[in-house]
Amino acid sequence: MERLEQALFRLEQGFELQFRLGPTLQGKEVQVYTNYPTKSHKFDSQKFHPLDWVYPNGQEDDCDKYCRLDLMVAGSYQYYFSCGDKEKVSGGYIVVDPVLRVGANNDILPLDCISSQTYLARCLGPLDKWLDRVRVAKETGYNMIHFTPLQKLGVSGCCYSVADQLELNPDFSPNGRPCTWRDIGELVEMLRKDWGMVCITDVVYSHTAVDSEWIHLHPECGFNLVNAPYLKPAWVLDRALWHLSCEVADGKYAEQGVPALIQDEQHINALRCILWQQVFSRLRLWEFLQVSVDSAVEQFRQLLQAGGLGVRSGSSPESKKQLKMVQDPQYRRFGNTVDMNSALDIFTPHSDSMSPSTTQDCCNCFRRRLEELNSELYKEINQHAEQATNCIVENVIYERLADQGPKLGPVTRKNPLCPRYFTFPFEEMNFEEEMQLMEQREKACYILAHDGFVKGKDLQWDFAEPGSEVYLRRELVCQGSTVKLRYGEKPEDCPYLWTRMKAYTEITAKVFSGVRLVNCLSTPVHVTEAMLAAARAIKPNLYVIAELFTGSQLIDNVFVNRLGITSLMRDAIDVVDHQEEGHWLSWFGREPVGAFVQPNLRPLIPAVAHTMFMDMSPSNYSPIQKCSVYDFLPNSTLVSMACCATGSTRGHDELLHQISEDHKYTCWNSEAHTYDQVNLQTGILAGKLALNRLHQEMAAEGFTQVYVEQLCEGVTAVTRHCPSNHQSVVAVLRRPVKNPERHHYKDDVPPMRIPGQVKEVVLEAQTIVSNTNRKDDKNINGLPVCTVEINEHIQLEDSKVVKKATMVSKHNGVNQDIVFEKFTPGSIIIFRVSLEPRSQEQLGALRRHLIQFSPQYQTGSLAENSTPSILTKPLMSIMSKLTLVDMNMLLYRCDAEEREDGGGCYNIPSWLPLKYGGLQGLMSVMAEIRPKNDLGHPLCDNLRQGDWMMDYVSDRLLAKSGALKEVGQWFQVMFNYLKHIPRYLMPCYFDAIIQGAYTTALEAVFKRMSRFVQNSSSLVKQLALGSVQMCGVDRSCALPKLSPHLKDVTYCLDEVSNQEEQCCVSLAAGLPHLCAGKFRCWGRDTLISLRGLLLLTGRHLEARNIILAFAGTLRCGLIPNLLGQGGSARYNCRDAVWWWLQCIQEYCTLVPDGVSILKCPVSRMYPDNTSEPQPAQASDQPLYDVIQEAMQRHVQGIQFRETNAGPQLDCIMTDEGFSVEAGVDQNTGFIYGGNRFNCGTWMDKMGESERAHNKGIPATPRDGSAVEIVGLCKSIVRWLVKLHNNGNFPYAAVSICREGETYSLSYVEWDRMIQENFEKKFYISHDPLDPEEKHPELVHKRGIYKDSFGASSPWCDYQLRPNFPIAMMVAPELFTVEKAWEALSVAERKLLGPLGMKTLDPDDLVYRGVYSNMDNDNFNQAMGFNYHQGPEWLWPVGYFLRAKLYFAKKMGKETYDKTVNLVKNILSRHAVHLERSPWKGLPGLTNENGQHCSFSCESQASSIATILEVLYDL
């Protein structure tokens, strides 16, 4: 199962989390499970329950359905989902933050408000002194106290070496009165309620103190030589190293070059030689892994002599592969054995008898193999020994020679050569006597492994478990005062330990609001999970922090997810490189300054773990070693400006260098003048109070945006910004790059420009150090005496570090230029900045007008004295006036369409032009920028640099009339506010205006569409927008004029002639190539798209007008493909007329009283075949007459040469190609036509390459009877029969004139002829002797339908193409259900791609799946010759899926249900493409396997329309 452990999803309580199906899961049986507890149930990590699906529109649409969790309980929760038969497909974690409460009213303490101070418990003294000592935290502005363990400590005194997890440290008991956990609890509760301070403490699960009494009573709780015998070799080495250390301390190795005081490289090299030659070689550790060769061979010999039958009977195939070594579970020297099953299988010859010589040969082979195995194990141990030697030597160098090390001095028994890895609770004895202890279980069980940590290893792996060689390789950084605890996999493995630690956890959870996980990485994760579950059962809002040292955010996320860690402690002192601070603060900040407003419902994206940013963590006791006293104040300022929890350790603010074991914290006394008490004059306490207050204020007031700038080396500026009122707090701090005591710094730093108006200096402070050091019994620092000069809440002119402040007007706003003086290392200054009054007013008014789009803008909004009239009403009231044609202008229109009006799409310098002139062009880019807050994007730069983009949006609409102009005025006024605010805020507010207008426009669009669109899924709505995208009024290439007698025709004022003219909607074939000029109106594309884009969306009037406009162009019985306003139309396609007739049928069927269109007047542009184009009304006739003429002409036969035939009409086509022919076969009723020199169907690519010799040659002539045209004809004939019978069509037949005689062909008879002949002629049966098959030698696939019948090149008939599903959908009665289903299955298997249908069987010799218009030498591909010879077109997919659904229903419910799921899954890919495409459309075609085709239209009308039809059928 795929796991998402490394992806962190953090949410606050109160959020609703929705699970939605991704594209690969739509159409499948998916169930989501979670262990988030249901109402009134307790959390059980192993108990998962399913979530119910919610259908927001009442329909089972996979693209919109979701299941939800209302997150009200803190913790870490898992989810996974099943799919079909797969029980668990994928899963992950959700971490819900706790809610902390303080004060008498239980006020919420936001996580980002936390200011924590750590107290070392051993420094607190008796409990009755605690309040005076922790009062320092309260008086310096902290609101959380973190205590190190309060339990009884081990003899080492280490804070984390806990001797008794259940007993309080006896040092806390004042005057002999025992201190209890109840006392601690009462104190903690008093601090929470009265002081408003949350208390947390440490928990340590990985180890216990080495002197813990209970571990000696229950040694099974640790790793000892009985329950972990695999540690024996490591223990032997550990004892040998101890004895070596003692001998070095005694000077016994001085003559060999290793004195007690190791001082140089020669000593180190000598030590390395001793380790290798005298320690490892003498220990012979390899024997713990080896087998006794002689014993094993003797056992093998006895088995051979006995026949080996009893042993061999259990052998398995695996045993024959290699000889298996069996590890001795007690790890004795030469204790390993061999699997005799495998030995007999490998070394016994396959014969019935064994002679003595054969037996000896077998034994010799066996012996040699054993010796090889032993040799391999010898090498393995030697490799471990080499690593151990390196680790020992490196440790010696660090501890005794390295500058950054402790420099322990001579080797002694207290400071041995290397740390001991195991306890030795016995009297001293020699090495040989010690070795005997291993076999004495009653003593060996008390030899326990110490705890520690391992650098660079798998952090989720327990280094003391079997298989680990950490102890043997000496890779452990050992904590010698502790014993590593051994939990096992479950409580039953070590009941006492689990019970004890659970009680320890429950005591802690009852008293404290949170815990810090100490040694988190060294504790088995499943143990910490179980303990935290027990804690949360008591304290559901448990605050959990940990300090991880993984070095990897992804690995951090694993621990955060599994344990539900609330905050990770990060130490600013560890950031050695000053340049890195900006990265850290940006990481721990919420978002950048000027960030975009995110929608309420948005995708959940992986987050970064919440942070507690420490100026000094408990792990760093000696910060002065890493930095100077001048770092403290700037460092604390840097931390306090972070948008996260912050913290420090008691002593840091007092500038304590180190804390001794017997040190006790000083008490608070506001009047103190001695070193045993502290007040605001001590160290940097006064500065810290101001910083903590400021940190908490910024978090509470929503200063969530952060910007970090490095002004120069050592000088950093940090800005915290509030996105609602746009106030800022700007901190400038100077840290010393070198120690100021030894390096002279200039006082000057570069001037700084602050956007806005500085209202006050919140705080300025300088670190002042005296020239003398003082060290006495009371001053434990030995540091220079340091004071901090502080000024709070002063004006700029009163500042001691601001030399000059100048107001500068720039970019419609005011900036403040700050010049510093005496800004020395250790100095800080913090400004409070707001917008200048005019900008505040404009921004407040703007936010007020944005409330209509989101209540988020309520905060910071202001009423204005005089509101522009256009803004006195909601934008929806203006948008509702717009027609869908207006919406085309408002939302879309690509560059080619815009240029028709003399404009163009907005071009962003140094980037790209927008895809559309309308709002969608901007929205497509903003949708990419907004979630990532990509404020550096060129679009954002353009907005900050000038008003050009705003002016483009408004001016484009102001140039129009009516409601569009009103929208333009609305934008103009809204942008006027925007032009008076600081430029850095331009992108976010521009986005808010555009996004608000866009969503309002879409809402208005859908209100004008059909109920099918309004009540359907988001995918239907997205596709329906294709109707707005493609349908507009194009004056330069309008439709032919409709009859003046036709009602409800739209007229508009022509700007040139100043007269009223028809302005009917035309439908672009595709964007951006087929949408303007003569290439906009394509008959076939328009008519294929009309049902989906106009009829299903409710745009019936536009559909009627387009049908009637094309009816007016009928000539010679044909409808032109390329319309060219009708006057320059080409009548060279055979199928457009049938698509036109199909549209009329669909109109009559789908539109209320649709049959009335049959009587509508049609103004014929060509009353006869030879006439010149006529004006509207010159020759009107009802539509039913035009329909009859089209049918009559086909039956009579169509044969003509195109007008103006020749190079002037088409310079590519050969002369024969200008001859157009179509007719009806009198025997079959099939429509036929075309020749091998032209291509009259939608697969109409004509070769253009002279270089490849395909110029003038049709790639796909498809002459004869094309399958989809036959299907369309059958559909129309059947419909006309029904119309006539219902009295809606006056004609029952067509007449045929042959040789002077007239014959009548009734529509009933025509319908029968096609029905009887279709499958006979088109179906390729499985019978090789089928008498209907004229060319059996050309058959290469059976069980399919031919692409054509009667082609001039017979092999073309047999090509598998995606055209027969079209016939299936328009005339399903032609197909036998079982045959149709099989053919569709073949098409699915061979033709279906990710988005489209392959236009040719990939098994065909001329298949070429990648389309390119470039010229080359390849006949089958040059200049796009393969346009329909493989590339995957999208519009046929619609017919294929509809046919699948239709015939699946005939096959039964089970098949239908499976097909519905298949269709949903396929459509999900189109949904993804729609979502991701900046064009918000579906392409005309893709290359093979769905690869993008750069030569295709990015949004094709027919692609969108036919997919919409599938959803209508669903």
List the helices and strands and how they pair.
Elements: E1 2-3, E2 10-11, E3 16-20, E4 30-34, E5 49-50, E6 66-70, E7 75-83, E8 86-96, E9 100-102, E10 107-109, E11 115-119, H1 130-139, E12 144-147, E13 151-153, E14 162-168, H2 181-194, E15 198-204, E16 207-209, H3 213-217, H4 232-249, H5 265-283, H6 293-305, H7 309-312, E17 325-326, E18 337-338, H8 340-347, H9 356-400, H10 431-437, H11 441-444, E19 451-454, E20 476-479, E21 482-484, H12 495-511, E22 514-518, H13 525-538, E23 543-546, H14 553-563, E24 567-571, H15 581-588, E25 591-592, E26 611-614, H16 632-640, E27 645-649, E28 667-668, E29 677-678, H17 685-700, E30 705-712, E31 715-721, E32 728-734, E33 752-755, E34 757-773, E35 784-794, E36 802-810, E37 813-820, E38 828-834, H18 837-850, H19 875-879, H20 884-891, H21 895-900, H22 919-932, H23 938-945, H24 948-958, H25 962-978, H26 986-1007, H27 1011-1014, H28 1018-1030, E39 1031-1032, E40 1051-1053, E41 1060-1062, E42 1066-1067, E43 1070-1071, H29 1083-1095, H30 1100-1111, H31 1136-1150, E44 1161-1163, E45 1180-1182, H32 1183-1196, E46 1198-1201, E47 1219-1224, E48 1231-1233, ...
Parallel strand pairs: 1-8, 2-8, 11-12, 11-27, 12-15, 15-22, 22-23, 23-24, 24-26, 25-30, 26-27, 28-29
Antiparallel strand pairs: 3-6, 4-5, 4-7, 7-8, 9-10, 13-14, 16-21, 17-18, 19-20, 30-31, 31-32, 32-38, 33-37, 34-35, 34-38, 36-37, 39-42, 40-41, 43-58, 44-45, 46-47, 47-48, 49-54, 50-51, 52-53, 55-56, 56-57
Helix pairs in contact: 5-9, 6-9, 12-13, 16-17, 22-26, 24-25, 25-26, 28-39, 29-30, 29-31, 29-39, 30-31, 31-33, 33-34, 33-35, 35-37, 36-37, 37-38, 37-39
